[in-house]
Structures are given as C-alpha cells and as structure tokens.
Amino acid sequence: MREILVLQLGGFGNKMGVKFWEEMFKDSKFEIDNNLHEQSNILQLNTSNVVYYNLQQKIPLPRSIQVDLGQDLPFTNIELNPCNQFSFNYSSGNNFGYVKNNCCNEIVDIIMDSIRQEIEQCDSFQGFQIFASIIGGTGSGLSAVLSQTLKDEYYDTIIQCNLLVPSIKQNDVIVVSPYNSGLALKHLMDSAEQLIFFDNEGIKQNLSRIGIQFDYQDANLHIAQTICCNSSPFRNPGDINSCLRKLSTNLIPFPDYKLLTCSMTNNQQSDYYNEYQKMDEYQIFKELMSTDHNSTITDYFQGRYLAAALSIRGEISNKEIYKYCSNFNYFLEDKDYKTRARKRFEGVNMFFTSICKRKFQNYEFFGSSIIHSNSINQQLDNLSEKFKKMYLKKSYLHKYIQEGIDDQEFVEAQSRLDDIRYQYQINKDRNQWENQEYWE
Ligand SMILES: Nc1nc2c(ncn2[C@@H]2O[C@H](COP(=O)(O)OP(=O)(O)OP(=O)(O)O)[C@@H](O)[C@H]2O)c(=O)[nH]1
Ligand SMILES: [Mg+2]
C-alpha cells in the first residue's frame, strides 16, 4: 500500500487534524474509541492501511505526527500514538524567524527521527500531508523548515500542504501575518508539490450560506471533511485509484504553478438540517465548480480554470459526471455563467475525476474538488500588498532581524511572491495554450 504520513503543525494544524481523524474514523466505520466496527471488511482494512497502522491488532492508529511548540495539543477521544506527539515549552511569539532559526535547530532532529521510524514501517511510502496555518509563527516556521528537510531527505516523495492563509478582507488576529505567510511561502514553493489554500473568510462565507454562524469547530469540520473527501480515492477502491503523485501530475501544468483551492458540496451540513436535500449529478458538478463553494474568498470567474480534480462519493452515474466534465462550457443554462465558465483552456480536458461508489459516512452523495485557477492571484495580490506596506515602513522588522532573518530574506520573499503573481498573470492575460510554442 502507498502509505501517507500526516504532519499536524501548530494550533490550527492540530485542532483541524483532530477533526480530520474523527471524520476519517467515521468514514472508515471505526468507532471513535479506535475499535474496529463489525462492518469493516478485509478489502477496506487493506486499503485503510494507507493512513492507519496496527490494523491487524484491530486497534487502528492514525499514521500522523503532532507538533506544537506550546503545551497545547488538543484533547481527543481518538487514540493517537503517544510517541508521535510533541509539545514543547517554547513560545513562538508569532514570529516565523524565532521558530525557524531557534526552535527548529533543537526540535527538527527529534521530529525527523520519529518521521524516519514511521517511514521505515511502510511498504511503499508515497508522501506527506501537512496541516498548518501559515499565519502564526509555529505553523509557518515549522512547515517551512520541515518541508525543506523532508525534501532533502526523501526527494522522491510528494508533499501536499493544506494551509490556512490570511484572509483578504478581514484583518487577522496576528498583526505580522503577512510577514509569516510571505516568508513561509517562499520556502514552501521550493519544497512542496501542492499547496492547498483555505481561508477563514472563505469558510465563513460557505457556512453562512447554509445558515451556520462561523466558529472554529464548524470551520474545522468543514475543512476536515473536504480534505477527507479529497483523499478518499487514495483509500477506497474505485474506477481510478488515485494517489498524491497522480494528483500532482494532473493538477500542476508548470513547475511554479502549485497553488490550489478546494470546493465541497453542501449536503454534508444536513446534520444541521432536519430535511435532507437529495442531490443529483448536475447539482454536485455545479457545486464543485462553483465559486460560492470555494474554500477561499477568491472568485474563479476573475481568472481562468487550469485544472480540477473531482472526488465524488456515492451511487452516482459516471456517465453523467463525465458528460458535464466534457461539456463544461455548456453545463449550465445560465447564460452568464456559461460565458464566464468558458474562460478556461479551451479544447483541453482539465478534469481528473475519481468516483467511488462507497458512501462517505452516511451521506448519500458527497463530493469535493481541488481546483487550479489563476484567480488565486487575488489572494497573492493582497498578501503581497500587505507585505510590501509593512516592509517599506520597516515596521516590526527588528523583531525578525533579532531572530536572524536578514533584509535579504525579506527581499527574496517579496520577489518570489511577485514572480508567482506575474506567472499567473500572464496566463490570465493571454491564452498560452493557443501559443504555438507550447505545443511544439
Ligand atoms: N479555522 C480555524 N482557524 C484557526 C483555528 N485556530 C486558529 N486559527 C486561525 O489561525 C491563525 C493562528 O494560527 P495558529 O495555528 O493558532 O498559530 P500557530 O501555528 O500555532 O502559531 P503561533 O501560535 O503563532 O506560534 C489565526 O488567524 C486564527 O484565526 C482553528 O481551530 N480553526
Ligand atoms: Mg500556537
């Protein structure tokens, strides 16, 4: 089996990670107290091996490592391997520099030891999933340093980062979030293969559409279910057995284009409704490609779709879904949407679709998508603008310089951000696929 190791870093990474494992357990039909449910069959046990171990002993343990610099790993009823839980006595001070240049020197070796032991137990290891926010110090610093170290040591594995990023409109609770995010992104762009963005503002919009007031619990559930569904083709037998590497191949057209967003169908929130709204293929496809269901605040219609990976669960007609995929331009009668949706690389199939007939938990239909669109530039523009404003005034800079992050690193982070934005921008302005050079 192609095993995956989950790394939960910092406050958000750990809280969302716990939710993620709770959802995974429900999906695998394990009871929360780690005991195997009667319904689990052999095939499922074999495929579950991707994310759990110890299955033969009938006490599944998530293959995951939790790290937080403060002593506040969240409580959970799920049994996690205590050897893989690391909490220290540091205070990051919300400072990327302090974590990268001070804490990491002391703790990276300990964490890497644990990672090495995990990987040695695997048959055919495929890669890492990192959960972290790059807003605070711990998440940004640890994810940057760890992903770099992992890339150096396990160069042929895939690193997928699920990142909470600063919101566009809303001001963050952390003043220096543009610095932390900008500096972390510079490192992550070099070492990780996929960077999937979530932002609290986008999640808030998703929740409020279905009448739920935003709080961290619900937001984390939303994100956890999205990631869980995204990764379900890795664990479940279906038409296409997907893996992290296949996702990378299909979603990343050029080396520097690796910023992705997610969407999820609505029906999972039926817990909050008395009435269950039954969905059909049309509704599912529409929701997965729609801007309203986006996990960030960016508007897909302001850019161009480059690629999309759909992952759908339930007794659903493959034929119908493939039909909507190939007729994406025309899949809505709504004229307005139609013209906007046509803004993609015309004539090129951009869909990587996995349909798994096994239901997701108790939901009849369930779907999530990872979307690659250059509308992500809205997020980058905002980040870059805030970064620049602070840097020009040199505000808060001394805190980072004290911790050994020099001016040069800030300049490099800024120019890296501008670089990525520029690349996505030229893609937006002219259709590169029509440019002969790229075909010859
Ligand atoms: N959705 C969601 N957002 C969270 C949660 N916890 C914190 N955040 C957001 O994440 C950002 C802070 O990130 P944390 O993960 O707490 O920071 P950290 O990585 O632990 O870093 P430091 O505490 O600065 O060392 C803030 O913008 C919070 O709004 C959570 O459980 N869910
Ligand atoms: Mg913290």
Automatic annotation (TrEMBL):
Pfam family, one: Tubulin
Superkingdom field: Eukaryota
Gene Ontology CC terms: microtubule
Record domain Tubulin/FtsZ GTPase: where: 49-238
Keywords for this protein: GTP-binding, Microtubule, Nucleotide-binding
GO molecular function: GTP binding
One of the GO BP terms on file: microtubule-based process
Similarity field: Belongs to the tubulin family.
Name of the featured protein: Tubulin/FtsZ GTPase domain-containing protein
Organism of this sequence: Paramecium pentaurelia
